């Protein structure tokens, strides 16, 4: 399984790191996840005792699917209803999630390689160094936030005695899941872009003479992305939308990079 990553400057030292949308992969992954407690228990009980990590991932995916279904129900609630108001609060909270976290969450453990697309004016070593930096920083930051969120779960569960939806608990539960995914994504990305990984542009002659599989890291300088980005000093919102259309990106995630402070 491979992924296409885009890296380009938006404003000054503020760079965008994002993965192209891969709908076929996401659909296949969601279809393989258990949908009921009975299916979850059957999958966990039938696996070998040594597959503890795999069982944890299965439970995490199960909880994530349940949260996504509950969120979809709130999204479809009639305007002005209580569920609709809760959905509005959720959107306000989600707007505070950093785009770098969204990017790291999009890196699954199944990845065997990445294709990094960047403007042709940038140096490939610099792009690779920035990717390593965001992966290393993410592995530290999201590990700390993950443990912090886990500690808050018992505290927020006490709000269940109130005759209202326990929004604080579900928000902390979501943040725990989000930081866990970002942590695992950071570790996987760091593995793929580390110095030990052979890149296509550094080992092109070796690849031609061997029958080995694709390299874990392929660096691709794009003239088209260079043209769309322009000078890179301050990419306009209109140009960012054009980049999203050409390279199949999530527009809302890209625009978040434009709104945040220099990373």
From TrEMBL:
The chain crosses the membrane at residues 145-174. InterPro entries: Mit_KHE1. It comes from the Eukaryota. GO terms for cellular component: mitochondrial inner membrane. GO terms for biological process: potassium ion transport; proton transmembrane transport. Residues 196-217 are annotated as: Disordered. PANTHER family: K+-H+ EXCHANGE-LIKE PROTEIN (PTHR28062), TRANSMEMBRANE PROTEIN (PTHR28062:SF1). The lineage of its organism: Eukaryota, Viridiplantae, Streptophyta, Embryophyta, Tracheophyta. Residues 197-211 have a biased composition (Basic and acidic residues). Keywords: Membrane, Transmembrane, Transmembrane helix. This is Uncharacterized protein.
